[in-house]
Amino acid sequence: MRFRLSLISALLLVAVARPARADFSLAIGVKYNPVNYTTPFSTTGSGAGGTELLSGWNTTNLNNYFGMFFLDGRLGFQLGLDLGYASRHDETTAVSKQDLSYTQFGFSLGGKFYITKPRGGHVSPYLFLDFYKYFASISTSATVPKGYEQFLAGLASPLGIDVAVGAEYFFTPGFSIGAEVLGLKYAYTDASYSTAPVGIGTVGTISQTNHYVTFYTGISLNYRFDIAVQVHAREAGDDNGGDDQPRPHRKKKDPTETPASSEPPPASPESVD
Questions:
Q1: What distance lies between CA 38 and its chain's CA centroid?
Q2: CA 93 → CA 96, 98, 233, distances in Å?
Q3: Are the CB atoms for 116 and 122 separated by under 8 Å?
Q4: What pLDDT does residue 66 have?
Q5: Per-10-residue mean pLDDT for the chain, 273 residues long?
Q6: How many CB atoms lie within 10 A of CB 33?
Q7: 245: burial class by Cβ within 10 Å (0-12, 13-18, 19+)?
């Protein structure tokens, strides 16, 4: 039993004295989806006022990302950001004027797993998955029912998921071009508002729920660089910089002290009787 405890203690001391090393890669990239196999559809048809919202996904594309990869670059986590703004001024007559503005912000959190280790001059297939959410804001100077602007903004703020299978060719260990050969995009929106009173004590409510499904193909440019971090662990309270052996204490030299001669003392003369 004592031998086992001694062996475990020795292994723990070796683990503490040995520096730990953490290697990972930072990545940035851009993605473009040129092909949609299907047109997004909604369970309730067109949006309010005959406008087909989110059609073609022209305003909800997370095109850039920041990532971090581990396990020899095979497993990574990504953060995507998207920001859009538009404004318009309509003036048909001197009296009829209208100002419109639209702001949209979206983000995504996802991961990518390479089936084979990424290497320069090789192709690495991968699986991709992410979740995204958009927030939209719409304002107009026109007279509209109360809550109608928030209703349209809610229909333009999808919550969804992307699933894709693709591959990347690495020209170098840090630069690659990829293609999501087959991707599936799903989005969900829900909004409602109360209309103006139709009669005395009567208020109508309009609600709409949309489900969008799109198959897509995308291409991407990716760049990554390695980060190596070396961590030294030592016992708490050890001020010797991790040295296991204590440093010997040196006595301060007294300047008035006469140094001892290194020559041996002279031999005493022999007495002659």
A1: 29
A2: 5, 10, 76
A3: yes
A4: 92
A5: 54 48 80 71 46 49 86 92 82 72 90 94 95 90 80 88 95 93 89 67 74 87 82 54 52 58 58 50
A6: 19
A7: exposed
pLDDT of residue 144: 75
CA distances from residue 220 to 25, 31, 138, 167, 256 in whole angstroms, order as listed? 18, 4, 31, 10, 79
Residue 191 CB: number of other CB atoms within 10 A? 22
Give the per-residue pLDDT at 104: 86
Question: In the prediction, which pLDDT does 264 show?
Answer: 60
256 within 8 A of 45, measured Cβ to Cβ: no
From the CB of residue 230, how many other CB atoms can be counted at a distance below 10 Å? Answer: 9
End-to-end alpha carbon distance in the chain = 76
Give pLDDT, residue 49: 43
Rounded to an integer, what distance in angstroms lies between the CA atom of residue 183 and that of residue 55?
Answer: 17
Which residue shows structure tokens 């304002």? 139
In this structure, which amino acid lies at residue 193? Y
**Residue length, the chain?**
273
User: Model's pTM, two decimal places?
Assistant: 0.67
- Rounded-to-integer distance, Cα 233 and Cα 236, Å: 9
